[in-house]
Design goal:
403 residues, mainly beta, 17-stranded mixed beta sheet, disordered N terminus, SUF_FeS_clus_asmbl_SufBD_core, SUF_FeS_clus_asmbl_SufD, SUF system FeS cluster assembly SufBD core domain-containing protein, Fe-S_cluster_assembly_SufBD
C-alpha cells in the first residue's frame, strides 16, 4: 500500500516555500478537487441562523449523506431523547453544571457548521470538568455517554489548568441522534491526553465538533476511535494560545457495510514554534462502507518555526467499500521547520500475506495478523489498559466478519 506522492494541487503556499526536506502527498480512493484549509460556506458563528441549510454541494458537506442526519442539519431534529451521562472523576477534579453564559463555554472555539451551531443553540446546561493547576492525576477522568433513543444536544468543557496532567476517556454507546460540542482548554505547561470512543449501536447518528486551545509549552494528545453508528461525523479543531505548544492527533476507525464515518480535522498554527502530528488509520469492509478523512493544516504568517505532518492510511478489506481521503496544507510563511502530508489507500500487502502463509499460517489468520499489525501502533499509544484490551477485542470481532 504505497503512499502517493507529488500532489501539489492540495498545497497552497503564500509568502515562501516549504522547508527543505518537507513532502507533499495526497492520494484518495475517489479523486477530489483541490481545497484549502479555510474554505467553508459560512464563517464560524454561535448563531445557527448564520449558516445556510446545506444541500450537499458545499465543500464541507459534499461527502456527507444529508438524508441520514435525521434533521440535525436543517433544524427539524427536536431534542427529546435520553442520554445517560456518568462522570467518574478522581479526587481533586471538579464537575459543574453551568449556565450558557459561563465564560469558559466557547473559549476553545466557535461552531463552524450548522450542526455545531444547532448543538450550541439547543443545550440546556453545559458540563464543565476542571483539573486544577499543577494537579497530576494518576487515574483517568471517565465520561460515559449512553444513548437510549431520540435526539439530544450537549456541550462539555474540560479545563485542564496550568501545569496539570490528565487523561480523559469519553465513551459513547447506545442508540440515538447526538449533536454536541466538546471544548478542551489546555493551560500553559499542561499535559492532556483524550481518548474518544464511538462504539454506538448500528442505528445511531453522532455529529460533534471538538475544539482544543493549547497553551504555551503545553502538550495535547487526542486518540479518536470510531467503530459504531449509522453515521458518525467528527470535527476536531486545534489552535494555539502561545508558542511551544504540541498536538498529536491519532485516529482509528473500522467502517462496516452501509456505515458512514467522517473525520474532518483542522489544525490552525497561529503561534510560533508549535508542532502538530496527525496519524489516522482506517479499515473498511462490506458493501456501502464509506469513510471520509479530511486533514486540513493552516500555517498562518505569525506561525514561524512550525513543524507539522499529517498522514492518513486506509486498508480496504472487501469490494464495495469507498474511501475519500483529502490532506491539505495552506502555508502563509516560509519560515517553518517542516510541513508535509501523505495519504495511502489500498488492499492487503500481497508480500506480507505470502510471507506469513509461507510459514504455515492459514490465509484467514494471516489476514487478521496483517490488520492487527496495521492498528497496533495506534492502540498501544492509548495508555489505558482496559480500553486497549476492549478495542483489540473489538477489532478481532470485526475481522472475524470479514474473512
Amino acid at each position: 500500500m504505497a503512499e502517493a506522492q507529488n500532489a501539489p494541487k492540495n498545497l497552497t503556499v503564500q509568502g515562501g516555500t516549504p522547508a527543505a526536506g518537507s513532502t507533499t502527498a495526497g492520494a484518495i480512493a475517489v479523486a477530489a478537487e483541490s481545497t484549502v484549509a479555510t474554505r467553508m460556506s459560512a464563517p464560524p458563528s454561535f448563531d445557527v441562523a448564520d449558516f445556510p441549510v446545506p444541500h450537499g454541494r458545499e465543500e464541507e458537506w459534499r461527502f456527507t449523506p444529508l438524508a441520514r442526519l435525521r434533521g440535525l442539519h436543517d433544524g427539524t431534529a427536536v431534542a427529546g431523547g435520553t442520554m445517560k451521562a456518568q462522570i467518574d472523576a478522581p479526587e481533586g477534579v471538579t464537575v459543574e453544571s453551568v449556565e450558557r453564559g459561563d465564560a469558559r463555554i466557547g473559549k476553545a472555539g466557535t461552531p463552524v457548521d450548522r450542526i455545531a451551531a444547532q448543538a450550541f443553540s439547543s443545550f440546556t446546561k453545559a458540563t464543565v470538568v476542571t483539573v486544577p493547576k499543577e494537579t497530576v492525576l494518576t487515574e483517568p477522568v471517565r465520561v460515559s455517554l449512553h444513548g437510549e433513543g431520540g435526539t439530544t444536544f450537549g456541550h462539555t468543557v474540560f479545563d485542564v489548568q496550568a501545569f496539570a496532567e490528565a487523561v480523559i476517556v469519553i465513551d459513547h454507546t447506545g442508540d440515538g441522534v447526538r449533536a454536541a460540542n466538546v471544548d478542551f482548554l489546555v493551560g500553559d505547561g499542561a499535559k492532556l491526553t483524550v481518548v474518544s470512543v464511538q462504539d454506538w449501536d448500528d442505528t445511531a447518528v453522532h455529529c460533534s465538533q471538538h475544539n482544543t486551545l493549547i497553551g504555551r509549552d503545553a502538550t495535547f494528545k487526542s486518540i479518536v476511535v470510531t467503530f459504531g453508528g449509522d453515521l458518525v461525523r467528527l470535527h476536531p479543531r486545534i489552535s494555539y494560545a502561545g508558542p511551544g505548544g504540541e498536538a498529536e492527533l491519532l485516529g482509528l476507525y473500522f467502517t462496516d457495510a452501509d456505515q458512514h464515518q467522517e473525520h474532518r480535522l483542522l489544525v490552525t498554527h497561529d503561534a510560533p514554534h508549535c508542532k502538530s502530528h496527525v496519524v489516522y488509520k482506517g479499515a473498511l469492509q462490506g458493501e456501502g462502507a464509506h469513510a471520509v478523512w479530511i486533514g486540513d493544516v493552516l500555517i498562518e504568517k505569525s506561525a514561524e518555526g512550525t513543524d507539522t505532518y499529517e498522514m492518513n492510511r486506509n486498508l480496504v478489506l472487501t469490494d464495495g467499500a469507498r474511501v475519500d481521503s483529502v490532506p491539505n496544507l495552506e502555508i502563509e510563511t516560509g519560515e517553518i521547520v517542516g510541513a508535509g502530508h501523505a495519504s495511502a489507500t489500498g488492499r492487503f500487502d500481497d508480500e506480507q500475506l505470502f510471507y506469513l502463509q509461507a510459514r504455515g499460517i492459514p490465509a484467514d489468520e494471516a489476514r487478521r495478523l496483517v490488520v492487527r499489525g496495521f492498528f497496533a501502533e495506534l492502540v498501544q499509544q492509548i495508555g489505558v489498559d482496559d480500553i486497549e484490551e476492549r478495542l483489540l477485542a473489538k477489532i478481532e470481532t470485526e475481522l472475524k466478519a470479514s474473512v
